[in-house]
Design brief:
The chain is of the alpha/beta class. The protein is built from 18 helices and seven strands. It is 53% helix and 10% strand. The protein is globular. It starts with 6 loop residues before the first helix and ends in a 23-residue tail after the last helix. Bound molecules: zinc ion.
């Protein structure tokens, strides 16, 4: 945190800045971050503390930040996923740089150049920009509530099915692949799996390992130029549940909680496909009326975003190239139990019901989630449901 002293000069930031935090993150790190930056004596920094108890990356929150950011030369995001994504979005729109001061090891977006936004009730990943500096203080991160570390681990166990979907799409459609970036990221997650027992103790060292792997994941997405290395079918299920939570006004669990649960489910689906228990087939397209019923006002946006990659030709190519992608996936995909052990070690949710999602709600995510973005995943070429899901 002390390194924020003089940071604007070192980063070439001059003029007027705006520091954005919420009530919790202001207390956790914002006040100190502000003091260190002001100590530099060069920059003028204004403060915006959002009053919402748990802000989400929605239009009203963006409007609030935009209204205060008019004419600023740089921004400072002090917070977790929402504040970082919103500041990134606003700073990208204004073409001004921003600094990230993470307050929790809860998600992998601190270093990435995309923002996960909830606009019009639709969860969407938009291209934005990377921070010019990330000041992750271990003392701040390790005093964050334990459930935020659990969410970070949830966002990290997703990297296996994200990589599996990337391998599948590379083989089936020729989509750009970067095996080095993928291998590096999976190595980081494998290291965490090897220290599952230690993770539960939440020592400074384990908090550091989780945070480093989260930062590495964001960088992987930045290097590749899309969220492919970090987000696959499991994120589609998570996005579906996040949208449903917003729609129904239920208490909104953390992004990483949804992602961890979805990763266990999708790892199980992958193993079912690899074992030949789930055939490759064109999934039945849900009727427009179902989209309208489930997504309400966000349905139009979902219907417009419908993927073009699903179809008989894609499934045929997936069947023809099966030995190649199946061998690629088998080389690194753990058993679902191994993900469960890691999630259990940090007391993260594991089953849909741990988040108040029924098996019908889980099946609905498997059916509708693939339509939330134009990205080939295993759910584009098979019809999965939760029958037989052991967790
Ligand atoms: Zn994520």
């Amino acid at each position: 945190m002390q390194r924020l002293r003089g940071a604007p000069q070192r980063l070439g930031l001059t003029g007027r800045g705006l520091l954005v935090a919420d009530l919790n993150t202001w207390a956790a790190a914002g006040r100190r971050a502000f003091a260190y930056i002001m100590d530099s004596g060069v920059a003028t920094v204004e403060i915006l503390v959002l009053r919402e108890a748990r802000p989400l990356p929605t239009e009203p929150v963006v409007d609030q930040v935009q209204a205060h950011a008019d004419g600023v030369d740089f921004l400072i995001a002090v917070g977790g996923g929402t504040i970082t994504d919103v500041v990134k979005y606003v700073s990208s729109g204004l073409s001004v740089p921003f600094i990230a001061v993470p307050t929790a090891p809860s998600m992998d977006g601190y270093t990435s150049s995309v923002s996960s936004m909830l606009f019009g009730g639709l969860k969407q990943t938009l291209p934005t920009c990377c921070p010019v500096g990330v000041y992750a203080d271990l003392d701040v991160l390790s005093t964050a509530p334990p459930r935020l570390l659990a969410a970070g681990v949830g966002d990290l166990v997703a990297k296996y099915t994200a990589r599996a979907d990337w391998v599948l799409s590379h083989v089936v459609t020729g989509e750009y692949d970067c095996p080095q970036t993928a291998a590096q990221l999976l190595q980081g997650v494998n290291r965490l799996r090897a220290q599952a027992d230690e993770l539960g103790k939440r020592t400074l060292e384990t908090v550091r390992s989780v945070m480093e792997t989260l930062l590495q994941a964001g960088l992987a997405a930045h290097w590749v130029g899309s969220s492919r290395p970090t987000s696959g079918s499991e994120h589609l299920l998570a996005h579906h549940w996040e949208m449903r939570a917003l729609q129904t006004g239920m208490d909104h669990p953390l992004h990483g909680d949804y992602v961890g649960v979805a990763s266990v489910l999708m790892t199980w689906v992958y193993h079912a496909v690899l074992a030949g228990c789930l055939p490759l087939t064109v999934p039945d397209k849900p009727a427009d009326s179902e989209f309208r019923q489930v997504y309400g006002t966000a349905a139009d946006a979902v219907l417009r975003a419908r993927p073009r990659v699903c179809g008989a030709g894609t499934v045929e190519r997936a069947a023809m190239t099966r030995p190649e992608w199946a061998a690629g996936v088998q080389a690194f995909l753990p058993d679902p139990d191994e993900l469960v052990s890691l999630l259990e070690a940090v007391q993260a949710p594991i089953r849909p019901r741990d988040l108040g999602i029924s098996s019908l709600g889980a099946a609905e995510a498997l059916r509708l989630g693939p339509y939330l973005r134009d990205r080939l995943t295993i759910l584009s070429v098979t019809e999965a449901d939760t029958a037989g899901f052991p967790f």
